UniProtKB/TrEMBL annotation:
Residues 73-100 form a coiled coil. This is Uncharacterized protein. It comes from Sphingobium indicum F2. Keywords: Coiled coil. It comes from the Bacteria.
């Protein structure tokens, strides 16, 4: 019941087989009480006369009736730890994106760009002013280069 093999699902194999309150593992290789570790089978594989029933994966509980409490707890703690790691990763990604956005904004403002979406006339005018600002910077640079060239 501690098998961590990945579950592969064929088209139409969307059912979990249940016997004595436990799910069949993939490839009919034993039993598990944990839905994540259960195999997926076609509904036609159920054999009620042999005590094997099928339940659609969307209707199956996360843990079967006969799942051992210690395995259930261990699995839950593992899922919680994985989710906490995912939260940490997402927070780091968010912080990195905010830093990139902030530095892009600062770089854009430094060069006179408007990085905001403008949906009014004033916004478009600001963008035009940013373009004019860039042209002015080019003129200043050219004038400085010309002056430096004359001084030598």
């Amino acid at each position: 019941m501690t098998d961590k093999a990945p579950v592969t699902v064929e088209q139409g194999d969307r059912f979990l087989l249940v016997k004595r309150g436990l799910y069949y593992r993939p490839g009919n290789q034993g039993y598990t009480g944990i839905k994540d570790r259960a195999g997926r089978y076609p509904e036609s594989d159920a054999r009620p006369e042999d005590g094997i029933t099928a339940i659609h994966e969307d209707e199956a509980p996360e843990y079967s009736q006969a799942c051992f409490a210690d395995l259930k707890e261990k699995h839950m703690l593992g899922k919680i730890a994985a989710l906490e790691e995912e939260i940490k990763r997402l927070r780091l990604d968010l912080a990195a994106q905010e830093c990139l956005q902030d530095s892009a904004y600062k770089a854009g403002v430094k060069h006179g760009w408007n990085l905001c979406v403008a949906d009014d006339e004033d916004g478009y005018q600001h963008i035009a002013n940013g373009t004019e600002h860039i042209a002015e910077l080019k003129r200043i640079r050219e004038a400085r280069t010309a002056l430096e060239g004359r001084g030598s």
